[in-house]
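Example for tutorial group B:
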């Protein structure tokens, strides 16, 4: 069964894995709760009646919300648009015609190859393909130079490699000759091509986003979510995040011996194929048996503006000084489909674009700032308690004896704040596992044996 071109459509057959049965992580996510889901559900059930609404106020990638939605109503809340898109697509799935989208995408890619974004960046695509081919033969200099030049948006100085410099200049000339709509549609290419993705992948992601945003809202969210899943699978970094582009040379300026291995596997993948695979997974999701919704809002604004009575709040705030927006800024730009200014750094007295092409206006969570975290916790506990509602908080302990990555708050400090507002506060370990660490293995801090605790608060004072 099919609807009109821009409407919701039902796939004629199932595709992909049975994501209706098994919890699914739609993107590679820092601190994923995939292995703690049953413990979280048990904790929530211990303080509220069966069927009570859960308010997941730091919903992130949606793993927790989508799991809980199989047993109770869920309201998923996050300040980031990419999170709202993912959660809405998980909680209110729309079956999309794989064949229809595939045909439309194929047509648009063909058009882009002739006179669009892909055609404009072809000089860099050809250099990148040659660089990867040479690197497979042990000749890595061209690939290293290409990676160091970065994306078109942050490449502010002439590359020392004449081949790379010529390709950059020609691509820039071709993009400048596109229509205004064409230039706008080259956002992924200009910001992130050559940096996090191959130039061909970035250009195809632009085509994918253009197609996705042409649909009506419910289907659009599902297609954008599939694009986010695709980008998370394709991204060429250690750990599959968007904070640290690969450095092709070591501190001594020598090209890394494993550069080909670091680059080739990810950058040789086809973006359109990965996108269609992601559509299969979203289309195979089972709609939750309860009313669920996703909201884009700051956690504190949501608490203060929403009647929470009869429900329970689940909170999974950040643990460290690492702002999540730094790891997922590319996904946020894709979800918003805007053209953000890039933040800058001063290097040797020169103001340069940030190496990771971060958004200038990124969300800065108070839970990641030592001077602000105590007040953030206090306001959260107070805002929930004043409505007489229980709250379950996930937090990771700091094992100083294991040289762990420091947490912004200690468990004891959080407990002290929570007891100002709740008569009964319990702490439960969810078991022995170590959180995903997205930076270089040799720089990882050792994790605590008990990497996660649930702080269960009831009996509001």
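The residue assignment follows.
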């Amino acid at each position: 069964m099919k609807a009109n071109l821009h409407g919701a459509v039902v796939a004629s057959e199932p595709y992909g894995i049975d994501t209706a049965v098994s919890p699914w992580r739609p993107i590679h996510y820092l601190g994923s709760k995939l292995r703690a889901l049953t413990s979280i559900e048990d904790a929530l059930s211990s303080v509220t009646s069966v069927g009570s609404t859960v308010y997941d106020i730091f919903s992130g990638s949606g793993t927790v919300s989508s799991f809980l939605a199989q047993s109770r109503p869920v309201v998923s809340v996050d300040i980031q648009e990419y999170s709202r898109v993912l959660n809405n697509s998980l909680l209110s799935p729309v079956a999309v015609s794989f064949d229809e989208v595939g045909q439309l995408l194929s047509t648009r890619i063909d058009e882009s190859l002739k006179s669009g974004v892909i055609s404009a960046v072809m000089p860099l695509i050809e250099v990148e393909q040659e660089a990867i081919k040479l690197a497979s033969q042990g000749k890595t200099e061209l690939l290293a130079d290409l990676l160091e030049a970065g994306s078109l948006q942050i490449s502010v100085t002439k590359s020392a490699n004449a081949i790379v410099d010529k390709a950059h200049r020609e691509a820039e000339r071709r993009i400048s000759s596109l229509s205004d709509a064409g230039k706008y549609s080259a956002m992924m290419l200009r910001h992130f091509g050559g940096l996090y993705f191959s130039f061909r992948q970035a250009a195809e992601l632009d085509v994918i986003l253009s197609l996705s945003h042409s649909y009506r809202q419910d289907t659009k969210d599902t297609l954008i979510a599939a694009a986010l899943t695709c980008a998370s699978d394709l991204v060429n970094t250690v750990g599959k995040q968007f904070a640290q582009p690969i450095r092709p040379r070591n501190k001594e300026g020598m090209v890394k011996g494993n550069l080909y291995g670091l680059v080739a596997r990810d950058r040789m993948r086809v973006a359109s194929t990965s996108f269609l695979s992601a559509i299969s997974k979203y289309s195979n999701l089972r709609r939750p048996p309860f009313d669920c919704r996703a909201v884009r809002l700051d956690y504190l604004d949501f608490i203060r503006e929403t009647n929470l009575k009869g429900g329970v709040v689940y909170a999974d705030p950040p643990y460290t000084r690492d702002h999540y927006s730094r790891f997922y800024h590319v996904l946020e730009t894709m979800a918003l489909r805007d053209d953000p200014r890039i933040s800058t750094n001063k290097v040797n007295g020169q103001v340069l674009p940030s190496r990771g092409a971060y958004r200038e206006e990124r969300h800065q969570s108070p839970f990641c700032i030592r001077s602000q975290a105590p007040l953030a916790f206090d306001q959260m506990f107070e805002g929930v308690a004043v409505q007489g509602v229980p709250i379950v908080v996930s937090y990771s302990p700091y094992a100083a004896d294991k040289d762990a990555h420091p947490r912004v708050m200690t468990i004891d400090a959080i407990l002290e704040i929570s007891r100002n507002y709740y008569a009964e506060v319990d702490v439960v370990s969810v078991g022995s596992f170590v959180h995903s660490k997205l930076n270089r293995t040799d720089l990882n801090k050792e994790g605590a044996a008990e990497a996660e605790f649930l702080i269960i608060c009831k009996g509001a004072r």
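The first strand starts at residue 54 and ends at 56. Compare this with the pattern of hydrophobic and polar residues in the output above.
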